Amino acid sequence: MSEEILQVENVKKYFRIGPNQTVKSVDDISFSIRKGETFGLVGESGSGKSTLGKMIVGLHAPTSGTIRFDGHELAGDLDRSTRKRLNREMQMIFQDPHASLNPRMRVGDIIAEGIDAHQLAKGKERQEMVYALLEKVGLHPEHAQRFPHEFSGGQRQRIGIARALAVKPKFIVADEPISALDVSIQAQVVNLLDDLKQEGNLTYLFIAHDLGMVKHISDRIGVMYLGKMMEIATSSELFEEPLHPYTQALLSAIPIPSPRLARKRERIVLSGDPPSPVNPPSGCRFRTRCPYAMDICKEEEPAWKEVRKNHWTACHLYHQ
Question: What's the pLDDT score for residue 289?
Fold first, then answer.
């Protein structure tokens, strides 16, 4: 088994939105990511997956809980050089390729922001690094002198990827990097990320709501709902034998190319809308939409349990 590079233990993130209201965006989540793997994190809008990713790279401070990267507690008392090294080794690719690039900066300077901040190169060497990064993500050196508005959405996302790679990170949080792109370009960006992972021995947290795309790139997958982790398993096992009713419903909604197989598969239609994270249901968060809800689901929160080897879920169906 590969060594763990990231450990998330009992992490919570609550946002105050008024004198008496709190959004429980991430509520007591624990998992780990191994060196060299891609961990896919899925869930519908408002599940807390992006907030979790931002906590991992330090853009949000956890309300409580512990995040460790490469053996260091990120909220701990770290010396300046260690803190700077960890900041360099953890990078993020943002969801919106339009909003995440400064429109007043040339592309070469955008990519070199991290190079300058960490004093990795100057002058000609800096320029050569930028050119090499542009070529690595499928762009051209002459693009360095252009501004972001001169590029398509897919090209802008490639620029964002080049910026993340510039400081030679070990770990990248890709926060829905394809959701704002045309379907025709999504596969290109996912394939690029996969190729870069193999070349640079990278580890990814790949956040998305498209389970089909997550399956393509991920070694293991975690499923979130309303601030809670519902299930974690290897990509193949999650798709072949999902345990949690929410995961089963998500998978049943993925289109199947074969009409014959599509007719055989039962489509699970969830009733109602997700409850508000300001006032989540008691017990299991999913119980108000679950077709198998029992009395205990209202009274008691299900424990996080390893039902099969390396296959975890939080559901009372497996605690009987």
Answer: 95
